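Encode chain A's predicted structure.
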Amino acid sequence: MALAMFSSNTGPIVADFGSSSVKLLQLSTGEKPTVIAAAELVIPDELRSGSIDRRFEFFAAELPKLLDSAGFKGKRIVCCPASAQMLVQHMQVNGVDPYAVKEQINTNLEQQLGVPMRGLIVRSIPVGDASREGQGKSEHIVFATARDDVMRYVELLKRMKRQLVGVHNEVQSLIYAFEHINRRTEDADVATLYVDIGWGSTKVVIGHGINIVFAKCIALGGKHFDNLVSQSLRCDIATARARRLTENFLPLRQAPAPTTAKARQESLDEGGLAMLRAGQAKADADDRVASRTSPDSLEQLDKLRPAVGVEEDRRGGGSHPSLGPNVPIGEGPVRSAVDFRELLESLSDELSMCARYHSACFAGKPIQRVIFLGGEARQIGLCQYLAESLHLPAKVGDPLARLLGPTPPAGLPEPEQAHPSWAVACGLCTAPTDL
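Encoded structure for chain A:
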């Protein structure tokens, strides 16, 4: 009887296995769920790119202790494997019959990867119709992972005396994290570009409301910036990362504050960023604060965040707390101790290609906003550079904000700050338990 009562009050534990850490989260159930336990296990540098067996031995030794000390309850776990273990690819196939589509996807994957289908776990979602060389085809986003990789997580949790009840990918989890602000019928007409910049890679997702229409994994992330800092300053990776984060090698570019709404509109038009005007629907006072200050990190931008407990009405132009603070518009070059131009241009070019592909497929639905997520989104100067290269209004997402009660759990790192890196974990909390 006690177990039945207990299980009805808590959701499953979710585990987001990222490239630099494992994030653990558990919510209460009900109409207004809140975080009841949270913790993060940082993966040591020597294990991040090393033997996967050593990494899983580390998980087996450390995760049970962390789960017990942070107050997690129950044995059921929903997990998201590391993005390096998941293939994400658009694929065009003939026809729309589900069985025929599945067969074509499987055949294409076997030929591409050179492995039999029995060694893969494959899921796909339809995107829409595509026409190539006069032939009608349907486009799908395919997610594939090695069956052996999934079994590693099953065996890991067995060793921990836990039960795996769901396995999901990062792309769909990101959409789940913002499902609560995309439930209205008209939200399907809003095209949002989600950019999750992690330590190992960058995940790109474009959604029309809750529907995924584009997904890609870009092999550029925080570790590439760390490697460049390490080479330029001749220090080890750990020191390079610490210096990059604390010394703020990617600061914001500042723009003078327009004194009136009219002046701000003229300034945007002159800069060719008219689309930003529609997206930056903030009060004049907030705009003056954003441009008058010189925020070099997300901590200094937290004053721009909506109150965590407020559910503002987006019909009236408000901003939901999950959308987080605006990325301010900036001007002029910035000097840095390390020249990141090549990495920045490569990443912005990749994002621009994603946006152009979407425009070619959905000419009547231009992307209206960018939401930056992932641990590297805390570097606001990086977000600003990418947003300006896309000519789109941008925010640093914080889907965890609406789930935090007046007293955040002790295991949550820096509870007073925004947490863009917890988006996948938040999405896993609402993902189905399908095992």
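The chain has 15 helices and 13 strands.
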